[in-house]
Design brief:
single chain; alpha+beta; TATA-Binding Protein; 2 helices
């Protein structure tokens, strides 16, 4: 009788996750990352959409796929401030007030983080430190540090494609 061996290919991706604290808007952050890292991030046609109960959040996503090193960069805004979902009555003469916008987070474990930079492809520690140093040099970047994505409860929110 013939025996067959199955090889389990682990689908976990190799990527590094960097947390960025900054007061910049997402388009300005993408522009400065392009300038300082010499890449060409562009806004994705589709944002990351998540249903957080009473809020439908749209997180802006910027992407750069580096063809030479086979490395992908994703800039994701961590915070979304938007209105609560409401069912509007069609019998009303006036539109109902939207109410106060509610703040939601892509990664709730890091509420103080403004952006995440996901770099797909395994990076050597010295290359990662060089990348962190180059981003830290950007004006208006308060701080940047690496995050262990395996420790995140909401790491499934980082599945981008």
């Amino acid at each position: 009788m013939l025996s067959h061996k199955l090889i389990l290919d682990d689908d976990e991706e190799d990527y590094q996750l960097l947390a960025i604290h900054s007061s910049l808007e997402e388009f300005k952050m993408a522009y400065l990352l392009n300038k300082h890292l010499e890449i060409n991030m562009r806004r994705s046609r589709l944002d990351l959409d998540f249903n957080h109960g009473s809020v439908l959040a749209n997180y802006p996503l910027y992407i750069f796929k580096e063809p030479v090193k086979y490395r992908n960069y994703y800039l994701i805004k961590n915070k979304y401030k938007g209105p609560l979902k409401k069912v509007l009555s069609s019998g009303s003469l006036f539109n109902e007030d939207e109410g106060t916008p509610q703040l939601t987070y892509l990664i709730p474990e890091f509420k103080e983080v403004d952006f995440f930079l996901k770099v797909e492809e395994d990076i050597e520690p010295e290359q990662l430190q060089k990348l962190i140093n180059r981003i830290a040099f950007i004006p208006n970047v308060i701080t940047i540090y690496a995050v262990d994505a395996n420790q995140l409860k909401s790491k499934n929110n980082l599945i981008l494609e």
